[in-house]
Specification:
Blueprint lengths: L2 H34 L5 H30 L3 H18 L8 H24 L1 H4 L5 H28 L6 H19 L10 H21 L1 H30 L5 H28 L2 H19 L5 H27 L7 H30 L3 H18 L11 H7 L1
Helix pairs in contact: 1-2, 1-4, 1-6, 1-7, 1-9, 1-10, 2-4, 2-8, 2-13, 3-4, 3-7, 4-13, 6-7, 6-10, 6-12, 8-13, 9-12, 9-13, 9-14, 10-11, 10-12, 11-12, 11-14, 13-14
Length: 412
């Protein structure tokens, strides 16, 4: 593994501290239960709105910013700006107290924009650092190392929680993210000088990305892929942002127990990502995506019926095997469609679709939860998303071993 690939993977290690502690495990429960109060699922609604609004901004801005990255050659610069935004907003959560509902709402919107917006440019480096025949495994390595980051940051958070200082957890995440993201800014390919003004590059990039979007939609197979991704990624995102809230509200998990179950999930996700890394390239990403979706359908449908913490822990550990696998395989699948020199544009479209899916799912979960005064019917809506996504992706031609990438691009 060369230093470019290692630093790229280490950035996933860094940002996974935010994904685990802020997006998934500790802060969602703190915000919905302490800051807002989750009586009548009011906290679910506020959390769903914050995630959806931040994702909507990223989705709408990605084509424009992706164009700047490609035309003005400012990919690394934008990655740094978004990363600093996320770190600063995360650190400021230290000042958030009970009843500061709107303040927390605004901070988490900006923090999430920082993380998710930066991932547009982070993903675009994949084609620069890895050959086509190895992109599947490099993608999986990134997710796998990211899960290791989640585990370590959660263990640190657990130590802080046991000491009775939950307010120190958020600055810890900011420091963790900041330190381990530094190698990416030293070793990933640097920005190039460009005579094009960033605004002009943004306009040109927006038009080009919209043209890319239209070309993708005109190609039957790529259109089906994007539709399938839109649907099943909606399910993935909703699981990530509401799983800990479900465990805390419906099954009454304590914060320490939530960290324990999430550590199990991250450990199994790490195993799954590395175990399947070779098969993404050998079988092709499509088969791996379909297998992962089958696993998710089984697990989310089972969650509707579970009644005990032990049952949830067992099913969550199984679900973890498919978490990193489906995301790594999807990224590798999409990379097969990308011609050289258009990585940020294509990943701008990828982000547009992926983040758009994250707009609908959290809102849907919050609405169903508040309407039925129960989170269990909302869980079944996620199962349906995975099922629809599986049916659509099964009809997509392509997604075979990465040696077929050139043919896929030519067909586009």
């Amino acid at each position: 593994m060369n230093k470019k690939i290692f630093s790229w993977c280490l950035f996933d290690f860094a940002n996974s501290s935010y994904s685990a502690v802020i997006s998934a495990v500790i802060f969602p429960v703190y915000y919905t239960g302490i800051v807002v109060g989750n009586e009548s699922s009011k906290g679910d609604l506020w959390w769903g709105r914050a995630i959806s609004l931040s994702m909507a901004f990223v989705a709408l801005s990605s084509p424009f910013l992706g164009g700047i990255a490609d035309y003005a050659k400012k990919r690394k610069g934008f990655l740094m700006v978004y990363t600093v935004l996320c770190i600063a907003m995360t650190a400021s959560l230290y000042f958030l107290k009970e009843g500061m509902v709107f303040e927390g709402f605004l901070v988490i919107i900006f923090a999430n924009i920082g993380l998710e917006g930066g991932l547009v440019f982070y993903n675009a480096f994949l084609n620069d650092i890895a050959e086509a025949s190895h992109q599947g495994r490099v993608s999986a390595w990134g997710y796998g190392i990211g899960y290791a980051g989640s585990i370590i940051s959660l263990l640190i958070a657990l130590f802080i929680l046991k000491a009775g200082h939950i307010d120190l957890v958020w600055p810890m995440v900011a420091v963790f993210f900041g330190i381990f993201s530094l190698p990416a800014f030293f070793f990933l390919p640097g920005d190039e000088k460009s005579l094009i003004h960033p605004y002009q590059a943004g306009i040109a990039g927006f038009r080009s990305t919209m043209g890319t979007f239209r070309r993708l939609l005109q190609n039957k197979e790529q259109r089906r892929f994007l539709l399938a991704y839109l649907v099943y990624e909606d399910g993935v995102n909703t699981v990530i942002v509401f799983s800990s809230i479900f465990a805390a509200s419906t099954l009454l998990f304590r914060p320490e127990e939530l960290i324990g179950i999430y550590l199990i999930i991250q450990a199994t996700a790490l195993v799954g990502a590395f175990a399947m890394a070779h098969f993404i390239d050998y079988w092709g990403p499509k088969k791996v995506v379909m297998l992962s979706l089958m696993l998710w359908i089984l697990t989310t449908a089972t969650v509707y019926f579970i009644q005990t913490k032990i049952q949830f822990m067992v099913i969550a550990s199984v679900a973890g095997l498919g978490l990193g696998t489906v995301q790594a395989a999807t990224r590798a699948f999409y990379a097969q469609f990308i011609p050289d020199g258009s990585e940020s544009e294509y990943f701008g479209v990828y982000s547009l679709v992926g983040k758009s899916s994250a707009i609908i799912g959290p809102l849907l979960f919050g609405f169903i939860s508040s309407t039925f005064q129960s989170q269990r019917p909302a869980v079944l809506s996620i199962t349906l998303l995975f099922l629809i996504g599986l049916v659509i992706v099964s009809t997509v031609k392509g997604g075979g071993p990465n040696v077929a990438r050139n043919n896929t691009i030519q067909d586009a």
